[in-house]
Amino acid sequence: MRFRLPAALALVAVLTVAAACGSDEDSDDAGPTATASPTTATTPTPAEPPPAATTAPDPPEPEPAPPPEPLPGLPAYTAGFQSWDRLNNEPIPPNSPQTARVGFDAHLGTKNVRVNRDRDRLAQTGAGERRPYPEGTILVKEARTGDFVSLVAIMRKISGTDPAHGDWVFIEYKRSSADAPFTTEPRLMGELCWSCHQIADDTDWVFTPNDA
Ligand code: HEC
Hints:
This protein has a domain at 76-203. It is 11% helix and 16% strand. A five-stranded antiparallel beta sheet has the order 1-2-3-4-5, with no helix packed on it. It is elongated, with a radius of gyration of 42 Å. The termini are far apart. It contains four helices and five strands, in the order H-E-H-E-H-E-E-E-H. It is of the alpha+beta class. The structure holds heme C.
């Protein structure tokens, strides 16, 4: 006879020895930078998210060209006038041929006449010769004393403002030094100006020919 012995019981006892958490012993590794200030030490900082969203450095933005500033004391519409087209080919000396037409030089110094238009186009349209200057034209006469612009005389074509005087608005500004702001006064506009400029009414009240 054969006895079949049941399989031996296997008793497996698994003892899980939970390892206690490691002791939180401070490893007091006070480094050279561990001199935390009392204020920052009070708030425990939570675990910080990974620095995945690091903001890329802004690409350098192309600087738009700043709008030109008017010279101090001058109106905004004159901003940048010194780079406008010039009607005169050469600087206008004192006592120019045009001043000879009126008998004396009302605007002393060496002058340039600037226009906020393409002077070649003005010549094509005959502006100032046979036909009037277009609406919105600004003429700026700058006169220099020494090495700075001391006088700025302006004519602006604004339809309907003054048909009796070519619809030009006249005004003049002066300054006494390169650092001083420009100023004007009531007599430096209107009648004083057109009383003389009417001599040039056959060229739309403008003396200086477009030499283009
Ligand atoms: C006595 C005459 C006279 C008076 C007054 C006068 N101007 Fe003129 N103006 C001229 C002459 C001449 C020119 C031509 C530039 C030159 O040869 O000096 C001129 C030129 C100008 C120009 C450039 C356009 C052009 O006609 O050639 C402007 C702008 C101007 N004057 C504005 C004024 C203003 C503003 C006043 C009043 C504050 C004024 N003018 C008063 C004679 C005068």
